[in-house]
Amino acid sequence: MASGELIFLVWNDLVGLSRTRGMPVAEYERRRAHGLAHGLGWALAGQALTPFEDIAANPWGSMGEVRQTPDDDTRCRVTLRPDHPALHLVLCNSLQPDGSPWECCTRSFLAQALDALEAETGLTPRIAYENEFTLIGEDLHWAPPFSLDAVRRIAPFADLCVAALLDAGVGLETFEPEYGVGQFEVSCGPAAGIAGADRVVVTREIIREAARQCGVRATFTPKPAPDAVGNGCHLHVSLWDADGRPAAFDAGRPGELSAVAGHFVAGVQRHLAGLCALAAPSPISYLRLGPHHWSCGYDAVGVQNREAAIRICPSPVSDVRERGDAFNIEFRFTDATANPYLAIGAIVRAGLEGVRAGLPTPMLVDRDPADLSDHERGSLGINMLPASLDAALDAFERDSTARGWFTPTMVEAYTVLKRHEATAFIESTPKRMCERYVLAY
Ligand code: GLU
Ligand code: MG
Description:
Bound molecules: glutamic acid, magnesium ion
Helix content: 25-40%
Order of helices and strands: EEHEEEEHEHHEEEHEEHHHEEHEHHHHHH
């Protein structure tokens, strides 16, 4: 009998969801022998899908398609429970029929941003993610935050999940209980360039699959309920020069942030309000962002400051060489409703603007910025993050530099889609909005 196994062609779309078309593995292998160049067709208007069952106005209507074209290097096949079919997927670029990247292909957007950074500065980022998520299921009653009890209650899920993540080679480092009820965190080590973003897509889908096979649901929504602890998706970035040396670290400078990393961080800080539209891109993102939740409410930069949008993470070791290798910058405002390629690509573009302009290293803030007076925040150059998706989109639309990272069609498609998503919840209660996002993410 033929194998019924499917391989899923997966792409992460403008609302940060993994969309897919599947085919029998034998058919994939047949096409692979011919180079996979043609992928599978997908209507252009598919990029205007909201996370729910509707589609925003878009420039394409019923016309045209892209080819979702597998990058065979990203292929991943993991068997979790022996009585369940393997999870088999491959990540795609959205290409035009002539093979060039489509202007709304988010994976190509990141690739181009990384190329621009490397061409102008010689630097390559290494990227890592912390994945916070909440398990929703009948037996997940309250347990003390961060407790062994909380994590041992879900031991079969943890075991299944960890085995699959190890098999997938996503660089799993830790699996731990978090603050919220049923909340856990999976952290993966860094990978260079685009592989760092690929990793987060694959990691999330494996966590979801392990939960499904245990009869529970893993949700990465930024806010599972209005009074619940939020799920962040913190992004860690380090910079490396062409000789493989850490370039963000300089033991002799404030915060050990090298001059070039100081420019980079200043560029991100300058564009941060508009970046929120790409990295905290849902109405529900703004139930999570805010002071006193460690999710961050201000565009501050600080060493080991968990209330800063940009936290500098020094290494605990004293050896200078090892300190340089482990040194990285954490962007805390990002959440899992963002497309990781768009969020990282835009952060890289903003950082590159800072390097080009030689912006000075931001002042480092050594306390919760919410505890400062308006005057103190003003003199430190700290601003409140946008309070809603609409405010973030306003900031993005006002920021002509940020808009310029995209083609006009991409700006239109993205902002119309995101305005549509924001409008959909104007009449809704926070509770209802949370319920919808728990199911979507
Ligand atoms: N859950 C917090 C957030 O929403 C982060 C907590 C932590 O620092 O791990 O970002
Ligand atoms: Mg955490």
